[in-house]
Structures are given as structure tokens and as C-alpha cells.
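Z., the sequence and structure:
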Amino acid sequence: MTDYVVAIDQGTTSTRAIVFDRTGSPVASGQREHRQLFPRAGWVEHDPAEILENARAVLAEARDAAGATVDDVAAIGITNQRETAVVWDRATGEPIANAIVWQDTRTQDLVDRLAADGGGDRFRERTGLPLATYFSATKIVWLLEHVDGARDRAERGELAFGTTDSWLLWNLTGGPKGGVHATDVTNASRTQLMDLATLDWHDDLLAAFGIPRSLLPEIRSSSEVYGDAVDVLPGVPIAGILGDQQAATFGQTAFDAGESKNTYGTGNFLLANTGTDIVHSTNGLLTTVAYRLGDEAPRYALEGSIAVTGSLIQWLRDNLGIIETAAEVEELALSVPDTGGVALVPAFSGLFAPYWRPDARGAILGLTRFATKAHLARAALESVALQTVDVLEAATPDLPAPIAELRVDGGMVANDTLMQFQADVLGIPVVRPAVAETTALGAAYAAGLAVGFWAHLDELRANWREGRRWEPRMDDAERAERLRVWRKAVTRTFDWVDAAP
């Protein structure tokens, strides 16, 4: 009998591999960061070869740390940063350029051109998504138009596109020697090229963007055997793929309509399950696929996407140098009782949900001579929670019932100060699970279900355990004032980017 399932968590800033046992508990792991490349203002890139090398390395590290052999591992799951676009040569396996990351805003001109014929919601009914630089389609177009010969090679079927799940799957199952070119429905739903109802690439969308179908991976479910690994764990089936936010939702066992979670990572992402119903938000949320298990009907979700939260703390560290490690931000923030009137709106890539304002840019407001780096650190932490309030309030009218408590996960939930402030400004309890690595866990669950390592969803629900709970302590009047000042600050960031002459 096999003892483990392994998940590869290919995130925006690092790649991890975690070995899980049958109780859903982590046994061993490996992790490596990759470079964040900023060639120009608004451009964000990753090196796909570096990501692949790191994935193989951390998979080996986790295997060895667990003392596992191929006979001990039932399956491998993959979860990944979504929307990030990789295009590579099918014959050589070489990327034609760096990956364009989901945060990248270089394609705004293309978004504007597409919106000129039908508006920003031109494709929302079919895809659940507004026109925005966030999604993969315009990134693919940019690569085809700006890399020499790329469009002709794509038309001849020589190139392949994928989000990083597809890039890893293709390489880990053989690459140029028979690698599987596929993705799952959750990642496909973030390209702006898939029809939510049919779960297939749609010809009208491909024509509108000018993307050849031969470039795209096959769309498959989130839980099935795609192929076998050829190295590190040779012969072990890769059997689960979920985009990172859907994986976190699955790891939180939010399987049914009305269940939700909020992940605090590079950005923040609230997902609320709507079951088998495709629900279109009237309040700035996205409609996306939550998961699909084998041949079962797909489950859908509403999503509130916030671009900059954890990456804001990295900015304090790497760009401003006011902390040396991300963990130091909590101590610095606690050295002052409040923000001293400072508000920080991190609209580095514009504002995502619920505003969808690509013209916005980051701003620090309320500065006086009294303000210190400690006030800035506290304002940064508070902005994470306040952005989440905006998204949760936008989601509420579209849900069958208000969210009674918020399940949270991701790296920032280790920050007790942030979690207490989040409960305070939401006015509902915030709950952290005992296993906080729910993104990797969700991918492991999807893979394990596909091969019978776990039998059914109830077995996974039984694994979920509460780790800590924060109850709100702020009174209604203070909460209302905090939100009033925050929203005033948000409006000050609008219209900063002028239309190109």
C-alpha cells in the first residue's frame, strides 16, 4: 500500500513540493525561490527554465526528506500560479521568451483595442471575465506579435502555450519525447479563451484574439491521470491539476455551494463556491471554474482577486529596505498603536476586484512629519485586510447567504496581528485551519482522489481541523470610520495613468 501523495506548488515567487500522508498532514517538503524579473515598469517576467529546474529539485528534496521511494507515492498533483503565460518550441522544449506573469500590465493597449468593439465586458457572459491584462489571452498575443517568427511558427503548429501547470506537466511526462500537453478546467477558465458552459476553447474567442487552436493544451478535468512522471519519481502518475486559488479552496474542503475561503499570498483571492450554477456577478467579481472531478459536472465559483498583498510586504523589504525579512513586518507594525493617519493603497498593477481600474496606481496618503517606517508597515498590513473587506462586501449580494465566517490560508495567515485586524474590520470570525498549506493540499487531494488514495470527498472533509479562530473586537462605529477613510484613499488612486497620446 502506498503511503503518500506529493504536490508541486508552483507559485508566483517560489516552487515547493510537499509530501502528504492519508490524514492530509505534511510529512516533508522542499522549496526554492525563483527570480522576479522587471525589465520595464509594469512588466513582470519569470524564467520558465528556472521554474522547471526548481520543480525537479524540490520534488527530489521532498522525496528524500520523507525517505520515500516511487513505491511509496500514489500520485503527484500540480497547483500553479494562474494566468502566467509560457510559450515554447515543441521540438526542443525551449521557451521562446520569458514567461509573462499574471501581474504584468504591458498588454493594456491590446485590452483597450478589444474593448473598443463591445466594451470591457465583451466576453464576460461566455468566459466570466472582464477584459483585463490579468488573463492569459492578451499575453499570448503579445508573445506572438513581439517574438520574431513566433506567429508563423504557431500557425505551423511548432509552438505550445501553457500556464505553468502545462509547462511542468509537459516536461515531467517527457517533454519533446512524448510529453502530455494538457491543462485542467480551472486554469483554462483563466485564459479568457474557454467557454464556461462547454469547458472547451471557443472558436469565436480564438478568432477575436487571433490565437491558433493548435497552440493550446487539451482541457481536462482537475482529477484524472494525465500521464506518468519520467524522472525524480519515474512511473508515478501525475493525476491532479488545480490553479492555485481553486486548489486552496479544495484544500479547505469548500466543496459545496455557499462554502468559501480567502488566500493571503502574493495577492489575495476570495473564492465562493456556487455549485453547478454559473453565477455572473453584478459587483465586480469573476466567474470561474472551482473544480471538476473526472467526468462529474463541473463546480463553479465567484472570485474576488486582489493583485497586491503579500508582494506589498516584499516591496517594503526589497524596494524600500525598511525590513530585512518579511516576518519582521509584524513586529515593526506593533511598535506603533495605529497608522498615524497614513493610508497605503498598493495599486501597483492597477486595482483588481471589485474596482477593475487599470488606470489606478499605488499611493501613500496622509503623510505628516510624524509618520515613520513603523506607521508605513502598519498601513501596509491594514491595506491587506481592508482590500479583503471590499471584495467580501462585493460578493455578498451575489451569494445565497452572507458568509458567516472566513476560512483563511496562505503565507500571511501566520501574522496574528493581520488576522485579528481582518476579523475586526469584517465583523465576522476568521478561522485558520490546522494545516495552513491548503494550496498544495488541494492539489494532493485532487491527485489522490483520481487514483483511489482517498475514496470520496467526505474522507477529505474529515481531515479538516481548525487551528485558530479570531473573533471581531472592533465596535461598529470604528469599523465604519476605518472603511470610510480607506475608500476615500482608494478613490485618490483613480485616473493616475493617462491615455497614451
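The mean pLDDT is 93. The chain is about 35% helix and 20% strand.

Let me know what you think.
H.
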